[in-house]
Write a structure and sequence with these properties.
Bound molecules: zinc ion
CATH architecture: Beta Complex
CATH topology: Metal Binding Protein, Guanine Nucleotide Exchange Factor, Chain A
Helix content: under 10%
Number of domains: 1
Shape: globular
Radius of gyration: 16 Å
Strand content: 25-35%
Number of helices: 1
Largest sheet: 7 strands, mixed
Distance between the termini: 42 Å
Order of helices and strands: EEEHEEEEEEE
């Protein structure tokens, strides 16, 4: 399917082709730290289809414990996490962060990576009190 999206401030926008079946959740500790969240959801683009429509992401080259380098793209103005990808030239695939995609309500994860570092409570969200908006404290 065709997907498109943008960062929170609108500086960076993009489009790509991606198979919804590749939507997945990653629980690795790097994703937890870099996203500032307990887990991160991604969809993998078809190689060579990721296109920047506006703006220029800042790229952080992350070296994994394995030695593999992954480029992490985010908006230089608002900090929205946009994607990760491999080092090198196109055609390559991008793992786009679900939260930045306009069609995210249609995308449901099919796999969970790195469950050994998963925060246990994410499996019990239904047991946590729910409200439609944030309560005054
Ligand atoms: Zn932005
Ligand atoms: Zn991860």
């Amino acid at each position: 399917m065709k997907i498109d999206g943008r960062c929170h401030c609108g500086h960076v926008s993009f489009e790509a082709e991606a198979d919804p079946e590749t939507t997945a959740v990653c629980n690795c500790t790097d994703c937890q730290t870099i996203s500032g969240a307990p887990l991160r959801a991604n969809i993998l683009t078809r190689p060579g289809t990721f296109l920047l429509l506006s703006g220029e992401p800042t790229v952080y080259a992350k070296t994994a414990d394995s030695g593999a380098i992954r480029l992490q793209g985010f908006c230089p103005r608002c900090g929205t996490a946009l994607y990760s990808t491999s080092v090198g030239d196109d055609p390559k695939a991008y793992a786009i962060r679900l939260g930045a995609i306009r069609q995210r309500n249609e995308l449901v994860p099919h796999k969970q990576w790195f469950v050994r570092s998963q925060q246990a409570w994410v499996n019990n969200l239904d047991s946590i009190q729910k409200f439609d908006k944030m309560q005054p404290r």
